[in-house]
User: What shape does this take?
Amino acid sequence: MTTPVQRDPVHMDPDGQWYFYNETWDGRYGPYPTPDEARAQMKSYIEWLNSQQPAQAEEPKPQSEADLAVAEYLKLRDMKSKLADEQKKAMKEIQDQLDKADAWLLGRMQEMGVESFKAGGATVFFASELRAGIGDKGALMDYIRETGEVEILQSRVSSTVIREWMDRNGGHTPPGVSASFERVVRVRKS
Assistant: This one.
């Protein structure tokens, strides 16, 4: 086992003068008449370097309970958002795989010319699902008024539109709409 050679930053040049290398060994200072003078100048240089170091961070001042609570709230909100994004991405990847599997199974059933088949401990079969939407809102509303079949429509109102309406109408709501304000806490980063 060899002992690593330790280089001395203080050295003598062929001209007999003394120098010292800087902290990165890519530059040197001198000449000095003696090695003691070179070491004294190197010590001064090191002290100067150390004085150039950034000041140590101040001790953190004690935080109030409100500061701590808000910091924790923001941390939790960020964690929740990150987790939701990760879950959304993971769910999309799974849904993409399911969509590909659905397409493959549909093609396989069409190739086989069957309405169902068994495989992998399950039954694969065609089903019919209704997708309904409003094609003509006026005609639909007329029909509901004439027949009274209000259950055809799922109803909700737009909070944004109702708030704007209330602002324009002295805080009153449109006929048939009930509205209330709930006091909630919101936190916005400064």
